[in-house]
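F.,

This is the one I mentioned.
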């Protein structure tokens, strides 16, 4: 198990300075072409533990993926999780279905996957993850995507994932978390901002990005996530990684 670096392609080297200049009225965050162009740099420098979580999804794939089944990467962006799964899947007859509703993300994702030499087939699907069918799944990863789904739609989405998972199948959910009481939330937010400063983001970039994500990224508490997962019928659920206010949970059917 190694904490290797992401592949360094021309795509992944573009520096994120989208929020570096004063923007006046900050627009709501969107996964558009400008974000696509800087996305690998943005997510690496914004989410503590990101690469560790992605890499370890590959380890979960090695363990949980079943022969002749499907894996789903929900909110695949540029395919980082799909690449990690692909690297570790040796099981037979497996297909990865990678889904995103941003055409710009999927177009770039196709280029990234084209450069990859792993052989597990990947189907790229441009769709809302709330609308797709999930079937014969042994592993579903939803890394940093549920937080962008309207809260009232989250239960139905998880129920659909549960229904589409085979017995013994695994769901990975990685999210930004909210904490209670507010003083604890404040502490973990400040630690996160300190992490971002250490990654080279200025206070202006941090505050404009935060404004941009307001009402777009809706975090929930760990308890809310676990309660929802258990209400769907999953046998077990637990966080397996946390750094500041970011965590990854694993749930087994
Ligand atoms: C933070 S990124 C996910 C990062 C990616 N999973 C990774 O680990 O590199 C969130 C992604 O979810 C996608 N997304 C947001 N809402 C979606 C929806 N309702 N259906 C499909 N994709 C969605 C966005 O376009 C974006 O690419």
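My design for it:
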């Amino acid at each position: 198990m190694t904490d290797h670096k992401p592949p360094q392609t021309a795509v992944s080297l573009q520096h994120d300075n989208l929020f570096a200049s004063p923007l006046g009225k900050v627009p709501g965050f969107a996964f558009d072409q400008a974000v696509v162009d800087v996305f690998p740099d943005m997510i690496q420098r914004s989410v503590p533990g990101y690469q560790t979580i992605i890499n370890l999804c590959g380890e979960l794939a090695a363990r949980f993926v079943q022969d002749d089944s499907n894996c789903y990467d929900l909110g695949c962006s540029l395919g980082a999780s799909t690449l990690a799964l692909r690297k570790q899947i040796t099981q037979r007859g497996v297909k990865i279905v990678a889904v995103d509703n941003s055409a710009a993300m999927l177009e770039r994702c196709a280029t990234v996957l084209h450069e990859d030499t792993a052989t597990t087939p990947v189907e790229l699907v441009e769709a809302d993850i709330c609308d797709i069918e999930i079937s014969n799944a042994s592993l579903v990863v939803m890394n940093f995507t549920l937080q962008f789904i309207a809260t009232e739609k989250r239960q139905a989405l998880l129920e659909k994932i549960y229904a589409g998972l085979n017995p013994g199948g695994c769901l990975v959910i990685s999210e930004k978390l909210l904490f209670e009481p507010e003083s604890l939330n404040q502490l973990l937010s400040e630690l996160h901002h300190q992490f971002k400063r250490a990654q080279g983001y200025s206070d202006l970039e941090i505050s404009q990005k935060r404004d941009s994500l307001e009402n777009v990224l809706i975090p929930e508490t760990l308890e809310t996530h676990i309660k929802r997962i258990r209400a769907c019928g999953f046998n077990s659920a637990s966080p397996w990684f946390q750094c500041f206010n970011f965590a990854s949970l694993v749930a087994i059917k």
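DSSP finds eight helices and eight strands in the chain.

Talk soon.
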